[in-house]
User: Which sequence fits this backbone?
């Protein structure tokens, strides 16, 4: 009887320990901001690139603007040792990952790493399947602050269960790590992700174009407008500590200045993570200006954590609103076409309301000052009808400041 009682007790407390596992709270209270290597460098990563990028994030003013995370994506991996512990590629990371993490931390930044729920990563490197707890312990020992966790080579796995396993492994490892699920929206992660991760991808990969779909054969990557349209109906799932992620940004990777401004503005309105994907070491002044626009960043980082919504679409011009703290709002007019459009918006006749959060600017009773977040010279108020010519693939973006 005593032996049976002992076994029962062990089973009970083992089960109890699993039920107590959770994601780390108090992280990503606003959308994470940082940089990821994949969009620009893919598998061509090494420790010099990461150090130089950390240096550039500081020198460019991006750190001061709020960017925090330096994230190595796929292909940093070497082999597992005889005990199953993962090591970085010795040729590309000769100093070891702990030394690289320490370097990033010395710059006042945080470090992110990548793995995959399958046997192999998308780039064919060792995945974490069956090694979740080992890998979590390894990342914690290195001082990692952020994990992007992909979904390649996961045949036979249930997404929720696989991500739950890594969540529990991270929690048991004891180091607070932001958990980013990259499941591509295949199994509706917004419906179950809040208790598991701090952010979850809502789509397949982004592509460096404003309006296109790139067919890779058995999968596609998407332009800015295509990914924007895929966010329909998802805003109710986002908030402090749990964000919809429409993928990393392509600002500075070859689109026009107008398109980059529009891309950045829309990701701000969506309360999306702002993860740059360009070469920070060789940015144009225009790219730097866009990525460090503190007024647009403030819209994204607003403490309310409310994702913006599309209010209307007329003649290929969509109008987006986002509630902000202190009774302020952000509004963004997007021209989806390549042709210039005339826009006219009579504020007092527009019945704007955030139905989910029961918030409204009530333009018929309230007047707001308009602060143009790209052209700082343009100032007006909602007392006057807005008239403007909007260039192709561009935006007008305002913060609405309520008059007292």
Assistant:
């Amino acid at each position: 009887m005593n032996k049976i009682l002992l076994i029962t007790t062990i089973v009970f407390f083992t089960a109890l320990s699993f039920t107590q596992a959770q994601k780390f709270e108090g992280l990503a209270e606003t959308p994470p901001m940082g940089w990821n290597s994949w969009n620009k460098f893919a598998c061509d990563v090494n420790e010099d690139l990461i150090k130089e990028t950390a240096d550039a994030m500081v020198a460019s003013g991006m750190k001061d603007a709020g960017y925090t995370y330096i994230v190595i994506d796929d292909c940093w991996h070497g082999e597992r040792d005889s005990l199953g512990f993962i090591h970085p590629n010795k040729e590309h990371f000769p100093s070891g990952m702990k030394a690289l993490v320490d370097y990033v931390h010395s710059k006042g930044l945080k470090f992110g790493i990548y793995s995959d729920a399958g046997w192999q990563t998308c780039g064919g490197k060792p995945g974490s399947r069956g090694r979740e707890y080992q890998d979590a312990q390894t990342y914690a020992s290195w001082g990692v602050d952020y994990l992007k966790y992909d979904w390649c080579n996961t045949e036979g796995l249930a997404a929720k269960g696989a991500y739950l396993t890594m969540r529990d492994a991270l929690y048991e490892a004891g180091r607070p790590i932001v958990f980013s699920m990259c499941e591509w929206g295949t199994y509706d992660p917004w419906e179950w992700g809040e208790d598991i991760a701090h952010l979850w991808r809502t789509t397949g990969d982004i592509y460096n174009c404003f309006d296109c779909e790139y067919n890779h054969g058995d999968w596609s990557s998407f332009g800015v407008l295509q990914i924007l349209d895929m966010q329909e109906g998802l805003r109710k799932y986002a908030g402090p500590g749990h964000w919809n992620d429409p993928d990393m940004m392509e600002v500075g990777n070859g689109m026009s200045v107008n398109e980059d401004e529009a891309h950045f503005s829309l990701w701000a309105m969506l309360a999306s993570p702002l993860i740059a994907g360009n070469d920070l070491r060789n940015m144009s002044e225009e790219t730097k200006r866009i990525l460090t626009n503190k007024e647009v960043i403030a819209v994204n980082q607003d403490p309310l954590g409310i994702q913006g919504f599309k209010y209307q679409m007329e003649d290929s011009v969509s109008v987006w609103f986002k509630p902000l703290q202190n009774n302020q709002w952000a509004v963004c007019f997007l021209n989806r076409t390549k042709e210039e459009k005339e826009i006219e918006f009579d504020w007092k006749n527009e019945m704007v309301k955030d139905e989910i959060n029961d918030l409204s600017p009530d333009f018929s009773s309230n007047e707001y000052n308009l602060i143009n977040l790209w052209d700082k010279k343009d100032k007006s108020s909602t007392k006057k009808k807005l008239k403007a010519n909007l260039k192709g693939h561009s935006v007008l973006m305002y913060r609405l400041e309520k008059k007292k």
Summary: The mean pLDDT is 94. The first strand starts at residue 33 and ends at 36. Residues 114 and 206 are 17 Å apart (CA to CA). The chain is about 25% helix and 25% strand.
